[in-house]
Amino acid sequence: MRIIDIDKWQEIFLTLKKNKLRTFFTAFGVFWGIFMLVVMLGSGKGLKDAAYGGLGKLATNSVFMNPSRTSISYKGFPKGRTFAFNNDDTQAIKDRIPQVKFLAPIAEGFGMGANNVVRGERVGGFRVSGDYPETNMINPMELIHGRFLNYFDIEENRKVAVIGWQVYEEMFDEDEDPIGQTLRVNGVYFTVVGVFKSYRASNQGGEGDNQRINLPFTTVQKAYNLGNAVQGGYAITSIDGVPASVVEQKVLKLLKERHSIHPDDNRAIESFNLEKEFNDFETLFNGINGLIWIVGVGTLLAGVIGVSNIMVIVVKERTKEFGIKRAVGATPMKIIMQVIQESVFLTTLAGYIGLSLGVGLLELISYAMSQSGADTEMFSNPSVDFEKAITALLLLVISGIFAGFIPAKRAVSIKPIAALHDE
Questions:
Q1: Distance (Å, rounded) from C-alpha 163 to C-alpha 317?
Q2: Residues contacting 119, CB < 8 A, separation 6+
Q3: Which of 126, 201, 208, 343 is 20 to 30 A from 421 (CA-CA)?
Q4: pLDDT in tens, 12-23
Q5: For 26-83, how does the pLDDT look when each residue is reduced to its tens digit (9 = 90+)?
Q6: How far apart are CA 247 and CA 235, in angstroms?
Q7: What pTM value is reported for the model?
Q8: Half-sphere exposure of 235 (CA within 13 A, CB side)
Q9: Helix axes 20-53, 386-413, angle to 10 degrees
């Protein structure tokens, strides 16, 4: 028994070559369906990568809180009251909410101004904040020079600074080593120990990150007479397996109790849950991906239906041929497999070409964007996952089987004697 039946394959090729134009247009429907499916899947991934890439390495299970004004009078306090978090609040969160993984108090607002940073004859206005090392665990930065803040800086109240890339560009000469140099920040001198660059897109906080100067939190409190105030609020992440929303509600409840805020006052503490936004993103792109599959498979199905219709015509034209084969001993299963084999071959060949050209086009677009520097914040790295490519190929094979099955059933439903008399 031969593994590959050469005669059968020659017969398939002769059948397809017999009407080249019909074969071309039949195959084109399948080609176009799989080509468009691949291109749309790659484009959807390009949109998703750009959206997620814009967040950089920001922890997606994060919550950011800062104090605002109360909107409900409570315990004798009028509405419209302002308040500030403090070091005792920080310790209370650490002691009473074990679901918190990283807690980063932030001091901001003390060093704002058009010319708040000076170095020699150079002046600039930048965002200055007092931070803990946990800040870089929640919103990681790419280290360009030196190091980040550490707990020795916090415990010893060191006057050191880690600066963003744009601060470096404005305050230092090109290729100048900034490590060990000093900056006067709001009248206080700090030694530069590191330079960082944000992973985030410029329109999603990256520009602000690169214009920031990070100082040790404790140093800021002492140098700028902030007392024990946590002036800028908190950045918080939850431990693995615990939703950020759980930590958010626990921290909000604790802070409201400590600052005599009405439990239903939702304006007193502004809270931004990045996990919720991320989940909304995920839902959106899952919906887009599902729509792409519906449209792509629908287009592919139209091509497969075209193959099936053509196979019906082919079977009808070859009725006498099948009758002769039946008469000389060919089994119904052999006839069915021959028709299905022709259908699978046509759909798989056309689909493989469409898949290859689709992947090739996406790679070409990705390469062109990379070489030209045209990667945008809205579209980046269009490509198709290997698993989806394999899924598309399997879909083609299954489609080819179904496309040939109905015509094959018709071929064996005609009695040999009737087929021999067919004109």
A1: 78
A2: 171, 172, 181, 182, 183, 184
A3: 343
A4: 666 666 667 767
A5: 778 778 878 888 888 888 877 777 766 666 677 888 999 999 999 999 888 899 999 9
A6: 12
A7: 0.69
A8: 20
A9: 150
